[in-house]
Amino acid sequence: MITEATWAEIRALHQTGTPIKRIAQDLGVAPNTVRRALRSATPPRYERVPVASVVRPFIPDIADLLQERAAMSVPTIAEIIGWPYSLSLLRRYVARLRAASVPPPASAVVPTPQREIQRPGYEVLCGIWKGPELSVGFGQRLTLPVLVMVFPFSGAVQAVMVPSHDFAHLWLGQWTLLSELGRMPRIFVWERNALTVSNWGALESYASRLQLRGQSFMSEPRLSALQAARRDLGAEFLAGRAFESPDDFNSQLSAWVSSGERAEVRPMLDTELQGMLGPDEFLRGLTRKLLSGERVASLLDRPTVAAVRTVPSPEGIVSCGGNGYLVGSWGHGRRVKVETTLDRIVISSGGYQREGFHQVEYQRVWARDVTAEKPVRHVRIVGHRHEELEGP
Fold first, then answer.
1. Which pairing describes strands 187-191 and 123-137: parallel, antiparallel, or unpaired?
2. Is 299 part of a structural domain of the chain?
3. Mean pLDDT by 10 residues, the chain (392 residues)
4. How many domains does one find in the chain?
5. Buried-most residue among 124, 264, 299, 372 (CB within 10 A)?
6. By CB neighbour count within 10 A (0-12 exposed, 13-18 middle, 19+ buried), where does 185 fall?
7. Is residue 374 part of a domain?
8. Is 272 in the same domain as 160?
9. Domain membership of residue 319 as a residue range
């Protein structure tokens, strides 16, 4: 971002008739930066998007515990409320509450949405089920988590296996399931144990995106509907089944959910879908005015964690999800774009290159601490010509 002095100098030079490209060259900025400065009536100003504190959802529970027993230790409080973050952060907040000797003010407590379960499509319950041990390739066998979502009105269950408990993977799994439905509820209620091993950046991005669109998420210690869903998955879905891989597990699970075994809830699920938000309905509920140039992610846009830019290691390895994916010399020392789904890792050139635009597609590796070297596909695009290449 340019300084106020540079902004003023750009406008002064333009008023004297200096061409935009000459201004950019003299000041060492991009021509588009000059154009934006000329379009803006005020100097550029950095405005940080407000992000809710991770402590806020737990404030009511902390206050209740301190009212019952003011001397309760912080580790005990953390265990009871399912605290997923650093104990030092919790200690600072508990110390402030004890020093004040009063419950937190009402303004400090995040308003908890009324859980109107009778309204179809109003909310979805989210949690984790411990899936069966299965082969993940590279000679490894792992027990992976399964994201489970229950729609309270209809009792419908959606589920998908994800690579780890990292919240980035949970968010990606949730997006995968909701994209299949094409609609989204207003409130996401998570079991707290699903948030105990989290990616802070992903969790904050998730909360900010929901907050901006007028949606929200909350957490509760235990949800009986999820416990019932886990029992059904263990007793009905797993009975007599064998799985060759996580992809095979997800394929069989998707077929079971949509088959006649769950057909009794389909009419009510259709009613529930009608009560959910459509892809653009959230625009009427924005909670603040958008900043200049800011775009609101659609309900069905990919999570921010699904597309990142990074630089490969000196050996040409791109780290993603705890594993490495090899790229050729075209990506060495250059920023590349990494797009992820639950079954694919796509690595692309970060910008224009003289030898062409490269895109390498790998099947996701579900094992741990390994490097994939054989992509499913490698395409080089030069002009209008697409060329299939061997290797990364």
1. parallel
2. no
3. 81 87 87 89 71 76 79 81 82 76 43 53 90 92 94 88 91 90 88 74 80 79 87 88 93 82 66 79 55 56 79 91 90 89 89 81 93 93 87 88
4. 4
5. 124
6. buried
7. yes
8. yes
9. 311-388
